[in-house]
Amino acid sequence: MTSHNDARLAILNHLVEWLMLFTNTDELAEDELDELIEEATDQADLMLRSMSLEVTETHNDTITVNLQLVDIEPWLEEVLNEKFVEDTEL
């Protein structure tokens, strides 16, 4: 049985793969590709967090989740403000 954290990671990786399929990476250097993958990972993580994704059950290849959609703009503004505060504290 997959742990809930592993299931969330599988969902995150699925979204990253999805986002990267629509990105032209043919002429990118390895470091540029790594940067794009990191950006796609950040975007996918934000998307999952904006839906308050909570894995509730895993069974074989099935992952059951609860989602609570939030109003995106105020939520994102709050997240970006928190990130700004964290960055300025470094």
TrEMBL record:
What is the protein named?
Answer: Uncharacterized protein
